[in-house]
Write a structure and sequence with these properties.
Layout (H helix, E strand, L loop, with lengths): L2 E4 L4 E3 L5 E4 L3 H13 L6 E3 L2 H10 L4 E5 L7 H11 L9 E5 L4 H10 L3 E4 L4 H13 L4 E3 L4 E3 L34 H8 L7
Parallel strand pairs: 3-4, 3-5, 5-6, 6-7
Antiparallel strand pairs: 1-2, 8-9
């Protein structure tokens, strides 16, 4: 798994991580494997097609998927959409990064809606990839499954629903603050809570 060893120095341990690379371009695959080798990844699973990736996903636990957007047999986004709906535990919830040479807003939206964790533009900058991997190791976004979407929660902040709308999740707070149900505490009561007290045994 992606594991932060020392959050103060932001060191990530990838020696035991199960990482799968999916790229139909041999040169692109070699470059990506070399970058990850520099990060400490020992033996990533290398797949040239989405079909190869599906076989690996059915046989091994995967901690991170990095796939090119354009694969010989399937769009990379469609591969992630398939995975999110596959029911392959725990892989269906594994973080997924899409690498793409074209990243217009429509492509980023397609990645978000297919359940991708991040879209990264090519040519790949190792520092950007490492920053995204560290973020994924730190995050704890819920995995959402609904009729129209399956993947990590697309909201990065728990800010509640937009004004004048109802929340779509059970944990959403109402947008308006209601009236108090009990009287406010007096200032004396508040001050007494802040004063040090002797412990009685």
């Amino acid at each position: 798994m992606l594991k932060l060893v020392n959050q103060g120095k932001i060191k990530i341990d990838l020696t035991r991580a199960g990482i799968m690379l999916v790229d139909g371009n041999a040169q692109g695959m070699d470059i990506l494997a070399q970058v990850l080798g520099g990060f400490g990844v020992r033996t990533p699973y290398r797949c040239e097609t989405a079909s190869d990736a599906k076989v690996i996903l059915g046989r091994h636990d995967i901690d991170l998927i990095i796939t090119d957007a354009q694969l010989p047999d399937m769009d990379g986004h469609d591969l992630i959409t398939w995975l999110r709906r596959s029911g392959l535990e725990p892989n269906c919830a594994a973080p997924a990064i899409i690498l793409s040479g074209h990243t217009p807003a429509s492509s980023v939206k397609k990645g978000r809606d297919s359940g991708v964790s991040y879209t990264i533009a090519k040519p790949l900058a190792p520092r950007v990839l490492m920053e995204r991997m560290i973020w994924l190791a730190r995050e704890n976004r819920a995995f959402i499954q609904s009729d129209v979407y399956a993947g990590p929660d697309r909201r990065f902040h728990a800010l509640g629903p937009p004004p004048e709308t109802n929340g779509r999740r059970n944990g959403d707070l109402p947008p308006e603050v209601g009236t108090a149900k009990t009287p406010n505490m007096s200032q004396d009561d508040i001050d007494s809570l802040l004063q040090p007290q002797k412990a009685s045994l």
